[in-house]
Amino acid sequence: MYKFDFPLFYKIQDMQVIVETLGEREQSYDEFTASLPADDCRYAIFDFNFVAGESKTCFIAWSPKTARIRTKMIYASSNDRFKRELEGIQVEVHATDLTEMSLDGIRRYIN
């Protein structure tokens, strides 16, 4: 099983999911979303603090509308297999644009 710190960005390279970058633990949500590529898919994990002292580990499947169709298909078909390798995922979000990942949108998944 993978162990992870927060936030993490994963990409598929040579048909394997690899860690692309490890962000700062104190990174803001806006900095996190700004780190997502505008025209390529990614998986991301973010520790979302929604109430003081409480957090949920969110898995983001990022597939922007501008990404290549083949890339979207590869990420979609690898999604479930990859998630099974992770521990502690409490919230899952599939997003094609940043409005689907707004803080209010994430809170809807949590509640």
Give a short overview.
With 111 residues, this protein is an alpha+beta fold. The chain is 27% helix and 33% strand.
Unreliable parts: 1-5
> From N to C, what is the helix and strand string?
EEHEEHEH
CATH architecture: 3-Layer(aba) Sandwich
The total beta strand count reads 5
CATH superfamily, by name, is Severin
Strand order in the largest sheet = 2-1-3-4-5
- The value of Rg in angstroms is 13 Å
Main sheet characteristics? 5 strands, mixed
Provide the CATH top-level class: Alpha Beta
Helix segment tally: 3
Q: How far is the N terminus from the C terminus?
A: 27 Å
The total tally of domains equals 1
Tell me, briefly, the overall form.
globular
Helicity level: 25-40%
CATH topology: Severin
Q: What integer is the average pLDDT? A: 85
User: Which range does the strand content fall in?
Assistant: 25-35%
Structural class: alpha+beta
Structure description:
By secondary structure, this protein is of the alpha+beta class. It has one domain (8-91): Severin (3-Layer(aba) Sandwich). It contains three helices and five strands. It has helices at 29-34, 69-84, 103-110; strands at 8-13, 16-22, 42-51, 54-62, 91-95. The chain has a five-stranded mixed sheet with strand order 2-1-3-4-5, with helices on both faces. A hairpin with a 2-residue loop joins strand 1 and strand 2. The longest helix has 16 residues, at 69-84. The chain is globular, with a radius of gyration of 13 Å. The N and C termini lie far apart (27 Å). The relative contact order is 0.19. The model is unreliable at 1-5 (pLDDT under 50).
